[in-house]
Amino acid sequence: MSVLEMKVPSPGESISEVEIAEWLVEDGDYVEKDQTIAEVDSDKATLELPAEEAGLITLKAEVGDLVEVGQVVCLIDTSAARPEGSPKTGLTAVNDSVPSPSPVSSKQTPTPKLDSYAKGHPSVAAKKMIDENDLSAELIEGTGRDGRITKGDVKLAVSAGLARADRKSESKKMSMLRRKIASRLVSVKNETAMLTTFNEVNMKPIMDLRKKYKDEFKEKYGVGLGFMSFFTKACTLGLAEFPEVNSMIDGDHMISYNFADVGIAVSSPKGLMVPVLRNAEKMNLLEIETNIKQLAIKARDGKISLDEITGGTFTITNGGVFGSMLSTPIINPPQSAILGMHNIVERPVAIDGKVEIRPIMYLALSYDHRIIDGKDSVGFLVMVKEALENPLEKIFDNKDPKDVLFNY
């Protein structure tokens, strides 16, 4: 027999342990080389664990176990033959379960004593009451003979407000990623002097531009011309003008950057992730849209790497896609500021002394007041507002938008 020990690989620097999130195979299955056999959670992302060789697998860790990097989590018998009738699968397919052979023993295994059939079953009268009150028999403890549910048991459950079929609770352990997010959010509230400043933006100029060019843009480049590219561009202009907003604290020092690595918060099945656009200040609108789309797909499919979600200097989050009117976003540490976008609502505003209806979005900038003064935070947000309300001047540099958009 030739047995391969599969150990937890290092998912990245500073990560010493991971959690078994899910086994995609069962003990005794025959697995193919490079087949995904498990998903493991680090405190930053969910990663796939591929089989290093083909063979029969023996699991050495359970779902929810914390395992150290380098620890053996399963064994693969590489000398085992593929079961007859089991076709060779694709790299990420999961084989049908191949049960392990039962050991032969000369000793007779004792038969466990079974509960009475009556246990948990209602009497005829009790069953009628359960149906009439839309209750669940599984939530009622029977006190009758052999554990049978009696009419009195049902009355007691009704009077106590218990056993309704729609009253259910579930206890589920949070993933390592979810627990890390929770810990980071609490630490931000406790360890930073976080304040939030607000402003509003007339989105009509951006909406008019998108309406005019979005179809042609999508047809030529295969990606949409979304709001996020305009906001990202506006933020990079503001970060260049107010470097304190693009800074972070390191002990007694403040570190500022001459580049803008902008994190874009996206929702994924595993929780909130923040893929990073490297050197966003050098990107045009097409590059921003393309990179955001690629990173969002990777986050959604669990394919994103640690390098793609670490090292940002500033973050943008868009609660507007879920209908949020206004919020105070929490800083993404160790960064010192985050911009919150919200939904666009037509509101009455004063323009040239007259009340007119405009599509308005509220913006929120949360920042660490330890290194960012009020004048810098307000100045940054005002600059973002001006860039969005005057895109021809601020974003397109007084050039024809069509010439810019379609000559990348």
Mean pLDDT: 86
CATH fold field value of the largest domain: Chloramphenicol Acetyltransferase
Number of strands: 19
Provide the low-confidence segments as ranges. Answer: 90-114
Secondary-structure content class? alpha+beta
Content of β-strand:
15-25%
Order of helices and strands: EEEEEEEEHHHEHHEEEEEEHEEEEHHH
Helical segment tally? 9
Textual characterization of the structure:
With 408 residues, the chain is α+β, with helices and mostly antiparallel strands. The chain folds into 3 domains: 3-77, Beta Barrel (OB fold (Dihydrolipoamide Acetyltransferase, E2P)), CATH 2.40.50; 114-166, Dihydrolipoamide Transferase (Irregular), CATH 4.10.320; 182-405, Chloramphenicol acetyltransferase-like domain (Chloramphenicol Acetyltransferase), CATH 3.30.559. 27% of the residues lie in helices and 25% in strands. The chain has 9 helices and 19 strands. The protein has helices at 124-132, 151-159, 176-191, 204-221, 227-241, 285-301, 374-389, 391-394, 401-405, and strands at residues 3-7, 17-23, 30-31, 36-41, 46-50, 55-59, 66-68, 72-77, 194-202, 247-250, 253-256, 262-264, 266-268, 271-273, 276-277, 314-318, 337-341, 344-351, 354-368. Strands 9, 12, 15, 16, 17, 18 and 19 form a 7-stranded mixed β-sheet that branches. It has a 4-stranded antiparallel β-sheet with strand order 1-8-6-3, with no helix packed on it. A 4-stranded antiparallel β-sheet has the order 5-4-2-7, with no helix packed on it. Helix 1 (124-132) packs parallel to helix 2 (151-159) and helix 5 packs across helix 6. The radius of gyration is 29 Å and the shape is globular. It starts with a strand and ends with a helix.
